[in-house]
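Preliminary data (for renewal application), adenine complex.
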Amino acid sequence: MRIDIITVLPELLESPFNASILKRAIEKDLVEVHFHNLRDYTDNSYKQVDDYQYGGGAGMVLMIEPIDKCISSLQKERIYDEVIYMTPDGHTLNQRMANSLSLKENIIILCGHYKGVDQRVRDKFVTKEISIGDYVLSGGELGAAVLCDAVIRLIPGVLNDETSALTDTFQDNLLAPPVYTRPAEYKEMKVPDVLLTGNFAKIEKWREEQALARTQELRPDLLE
Ligand code: ADE
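Predicted structure:
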């Protein structure tokens, strides 16, 4: 999979890709991530990427021309499955969307900034608009990092134990069951007996019951 991220602040995005699972996925060539600084696609000597909005109003808007140049130059090189725009008024990211994006070959992620991008960019280039939650961030970069993390960890081979992504919270629309590790007893707090029985059928049944009970209590909306 290849991900091209278009941003005015590449430095804000680099560190999540330099540690742990994302770093390993890149090193193992399971994913390629490329950052494109929008300012490199400007003609003006100020490297201006934004301007005042027509009709008046507070806040700057990212201009169409540098975005067009950047996206068009990428699309000349390869076919992209999606051009995603990170924006608080997009579809809220969920596990189903992450699963589906993890199967794509090439995607572009455009990070909004200030008041957002010129609407014509959304009309002409963008195929999917994604929000990471009902709150406003100062730009799309942190949202893009969240999206990439959620997607990249699902690419086969990225996690050591492949089954661990399959048992994540939200797979099957259920929250994950509780987990425990050593010691079996700590300050009178005991690990549930069933987990120490070695009876895997019983353990699996207990986990399913726990997952359902937790979902009913904490996220009944997932069961609707
Ligand atoms: N840009 C600003 N706020 C955002 C959000 N909530 N999700 C994605 N991109 C954003």
